[in-house]
Amino acid sequence: MQNGILLQITRATNANRQVRSIANFLLLALLLVTCQARAETPDTITLTDGEQLIGKLVKVLSGAVTFHSDILGDVTVPLEKVKTLQAAAQFAVVEKKQHFTRKTAAQAIPVGAIAIEDGIVHVSPPKAEEKTFPAKNVNHLIDAASFNRELHGEQSFLYNWNGAITLGASLVDSTNSAQTYTGLVNLVRAIPATGWLPASSKTTLNLSSTYGLARDAQIVSNSVVIQPASVTKTDILHGGLEYDKYFSPAVFTFVNAGADHNLGSGLQLQQAYGGGIGWTVLNKPKNALDLKASALYEQQQFYGSETGPSGSPNKNLIAGAINETWKHNFPHNVKFNEYLTLTPTFNVAQAYSAVAGASLLFPAYKRLNFTLASIDNYIGDPPEGFKRNTIQFTAGVTYVVK
């Protein structure tokens, strides 16, 4: 009898433990679901015309709000057109004409939950009182993770590469056959990624390739040779790398290196290494202009220069370079890029060279764009039989890297 009572008590105790375990599990699951729901609470923005968007606040730069809508994708609107905004994440608030350094930025810039209502920006830091700013005085809103990463210089090598990759092709298959392939890679890594801190450094990588092969068959009609057989080849390669270090928002020094191959001008290989000083004349979101001057060493190797009866000898050159780069954003996100580089040579005056290029990028679908581009390469002293100018025109599909 006593053993039966003990057995029942033991069973009741085990049942209570199981009930408690199940209850604890359900409570933990409920807490996790609640936290996840809070974490996934979407941001909302209401514009002055009454339109409301649901999604996520990305950033505010120079008074322009970038908001990722669940339906429309990334939308950019002026801050003054925002009536209300509620954001779940924490952001740093940077005012217009606010003066600070990297050492004082953490104390001078508040970071907290953001809300905008009727032209007033409210920021609620976790351990401080709420602060308010007129929206017209706010220049940037940067998410807390990016703010801390850039403030403390915690960027990996793969951080913040931006640019474009363009591909184009042309194929013909008939009595005559031809194929042409082009590729362009233009990438820029600017530190910091946003304009709230003075520029620190910039790394630029440019790669381009054009390859073409045309075969013309011999055409004989009624014993008359209408077209002789021939093969035409196009082979142009370029690679360039530059690192800029800023001493002020407008002045920087740089080092660069480049390599070129151009069958059209008889250039087997050109290597260039140099460095100099640059000046950022304009640095606006829609308009940017840089001027640079440098000294460099060049080595040119031409086809037929060592064994052929014609051609220029290989050259070791001391040169200078003057470069201008202009970028402009037109309405509807159409982008125009233009550059010009003049390279006079001092020890062999006739070996000077130049390159100029321009491109127009038209948005098509999300990160895909249609691009029209042209490049003109000029070699001052090519081998005999080769032209000095090589002009390329490219139409292709561009993928924008962000």
Helicity range: 10-25%
Q: What would you report as the Rg, rounded to the nearest angstrom?
A: 31 Å
Question: Distance N terminus to C terminus?
Answer: 78 Å
- Runs in which pLDDT lies below 50 for 5 or more consecutive residues are 33-39, 307-311
Please report the number of helical segments.
Answer: 3
Q: What would the principal axes of the Cα set say about the shape?
A: elongated
- CATH homologous group name of the largest domain: monomeric porin ompg
- CATH class of the largest domain reads Mainly Beta
Secondary-structure-derived class: mainly beta
Run of helices and strands = HEEEEEHEEEEHEEEEEEEEEEEEEE
Reported CATH architecture of the largest domain = Beta Barrel
Total beta strands: 23
Mean pLDDT: 85
Protein described:
The protein is mainly beta. The chain folds into two domains: 43-151, no CATH class; 161-401, Porin. It is built from three helices and 23 strands. It has helices spanning 2-39, 105-108, 144-151; strands at 43-47, 52-61, 64-69, 73-78, 82-95, 111-117, 120-124, 131-134, 138-143, 161-173, 176-191, 201-216, 219-221, 224-227, 230-246, 251-262, 267-284, 287-302, 315-330, 334-343, 353-365, 368-379, 389-401. The strands form three sheets. Strands 10-11-12-15-16-17-18-19-20-21-22-23 form a twelve-stranded antiparallel β-barrel. β6 and β7 form a beta hairpin.
Summary keywords:
402 residues; mainly beta; Porin; twelve-stranded antiparallel β-barrel; nine-stranded antiparallel beta sheet; 3 helices; 23 strands
List the helices and strands and how they pair.
Blueprint: H1 2-39, E1 43-47, E2 52-61, E3 64-69, E4 73-78, E5 82-95, H2 105-108, E6 111-117, E7 120-124, E8 131-134, E9 138-143, H3 144-151, E10 161-173, E11 176-191, E12 201-216, E13 219-221, E14 224-227, E15 230-246, E16 251-262, E17 267-284, E18 287-302, E19 315-330, E20 334-343, E21 353-365, E22 368-379, E23 389-401
